[in-house]
Amino acid sequence: MSNLKLIIKREFLARIRNRTFIVMTFLSPLIMVGMISLIAWLTTLNNDEVRKVAVFDETGMFNTDFEDSEDVNYIDYSKLTLNDAKDSVVLKKLHGLLYIPKKNTNKELASSIQFYADEAPNISILNKIEKIIGGKLTDQNFKEKGLDLVVIEKAKTKVNIQIENFSGEKTSKMSNYVKMIFGGVAGYFLMMFIIIYGNMVMRSVIEEKSNRIIEIIISSVKPLQLMMGKILGTSFAGILQFVIWVILGAVLLTVATSVFGVDPQPAGVDQSLVLQDENQQEIQLILQDIIKLPLGTLVLSFFIYFVGGYFLYSSIYAAIGAAVDSETDSQQFMLPIILPLMLGIYVGFFSVIENPHGTVSVIFSMIPLTSPIVMLMRIPFGVPWWEVVISMLLLIGSIIFITWVAAKIYRIGILMYGKKPSYKELFKWIKY
Amino acid sequence: MANLLEVQQATKRFGNFTALHDVSIQVPKGSIFGLLGPNGAGKTTLIRIVNQITLPDEGSVYLDNEFLKPEHIKDIGYLPEERGLYKSMKVGEQALYLAQLKGLSKSEAKERLKYWFEKFDIIHWWDKKIQELSKGMAQKVQFIVTVLHKPKLLIFDEPFSGFDPINANVIKDEILHLRDEGATVIFSTHRMESVEELCDHIALINKSKKILDGKVTDIKRAYKSNTFEVGILAENNNELYTDLQTKFVDVVPADFKAIDDQLKMKITLGNSTSSNELLQYLSNKGQILRFNEVIPTVNEIFIKTITDIENE
């Protein structure tokens, strides 16, 4: 077996045998699913509560309009005096009191309706009440002007613009969201991977240094070989962990859904609304959009940017690990890693989504330290091939350069003890 | 005798700092070679060059008459001064890993490890983690890993630091045994007295420069000053002492442990006088209890050389 393979194997085994690693691998999906279930459960709990609203209607116009629904019941207090009604609401701890005074005109009435409540009233209930009263008053206004409500209802027209590109393919309005989600997930995933496993590479280098085994090893293998073996071994462990997370997460989520009968997506409120509004055809279009995404290009470029980005950053992590004696000392060198990663994510989530082909997006998808994240987010929106090629060439070029620099720092750093190096010192090491 | 290792005019700089300046050494096959010098003299840099951990800026290294190349790693066993092992890895597993890195196959490595572990009676450590072992125990494992692949050249940097005297002896015997089997050994240390008796050849390094090298016997011969330590039971000590001072080049009082109240002196003879003449003279004066030639230790030679250089 070649030395590189041996190192990769050792690093891989050392990572996955680590107790923290094992615990994290199996605990994280549990915690995640647990949290999601908890939130979902709490949301349903919240929704189950039926709020009671007292109605004090002096006009008598609305006695049939307030119908009880899933989350709100109306109680008619119109026969009491206003003060009694108020006292009674407080005493019975009702959600609030709706007061509709008698006015001469509907216009006057519309601006003088009040809602009494101790706590801030529920917005959706208020919206509902406003809708009911507003609809009723509008209808009355129409009638006064002698308009036929049936005719008006018939005259209402709903417009749904069909989006189509110039080659005649239909797309849905959701298409942009689909692209955004694809890019966003890919970019975010890459950032997390870099931070988690880059740190692992760094810790592994520091461990070898503080254990004083490093000189024994590099009398047998080249430092570059050791560094590469570390980066590769750790990334394999990372991929394994991610695969386990995805599988476990999926299984647990299915189990949780069926056991608790909970909708695992509390955010589903919006989505289901959207889905209800859009018809079947729209869903089909979304599916078509997903299929129509340049999946081949997407997967290939995800692979290249993922590997490239990870290599770029983890060799910097390795160099930092070699330069310091302990993890505490590494903090001062973290900025050049965290800053471009954060920048990439921010540019991705703000600039790319706003305008995928704007100047800012294009520039940041070219700069090697941010390009893996930003370009991954841009690609679903369709990027000219030459831009991708330039960005990849720049990335590959800088990987070679950065790895070379990192290997230099690594070679010197692993044999230096008891020094807390400055940037200036690191620069000197590169020239040795 | 052919040289196993030859370093020719090696120079290494780190920025403005010269760690090694124009150093050449020849290590004869089958010898024990002492690389001596104070801390920071450049010993470790020289050793790292031989181990191809660092490259020299100038100069060249030959192993067995071949220009040093990556394949030579397998021919060298190196126990660095800064040595340790993975704390959380099991002893056996980690020894196997390190042996495989030196090019041994897994089965071969296992077999040889078993031999050594049994020899040191530590086979029950196999499944223990290093963090459960003491420092001395871990050093035994490191020693085994260093010699396991039967290298032609063994390099030990400060080999006996961290060993208790008993284990240090065990290791010393093993090293001598390996030398008898044909290995060449380099000791690098600043504690010169600890390896003086073992070494056939030495090189002294100070402040990045080699200041002296050669066969230990030759060096000592060159540095001895025809001086003898004498203990004599005379009738009148003071009279004899002044008498001797007029007769010989240099006579100074000496201090060594003795049970009788004898006259203790260090007598330096000139080039023209032989020790027999001194003996003859002394034998008439009283009972000679001690008479031996003063041979300088490597330490003394080293200090003398450095002061000589600095005085120039």
Characterize the structure shown.
The complex is a heterodimer of chains A (432) and B (312). The relative contact order of chain A is 0.10. In chain A, helix 1 runs parallel beside helix 9 (223-260), helix 7 packs antiparallel against helix 13 and helix 16 crosses helix 17 (423-431). The longest helix of chain A has 38 residues, at 223-260. Chain A contains 17 helices and six strands. Chain A has 432 residues and is mainly α. In chain B, helix 2 (91-101) packs across helix 3 and helix 2 (91-101) packs parallel to helix 4. Chain B is 33% helix and 29% strand. Chain B is an alpha/beta fold. Chain B is elongated, with a radius of gyration of 24 Å. Chain B has helices at 43-50, 91-101, 106-119, 135-147, 165-180, 216-223, 237-247, 275-283, 298-311; strands spanning 3-14, 17-28, 32-36, 58-63, 66-67, 76-79, 153-157, 184-189, 201-206, 209-215, 227-234, 250-253, 263-268, 286-293. Chain B has nine helices and 14 strands. The mean pLDDT of chain B is 88. Chains A and B meet through helix 1 and helix 8 of A and strand 6 and helix 2 of B.
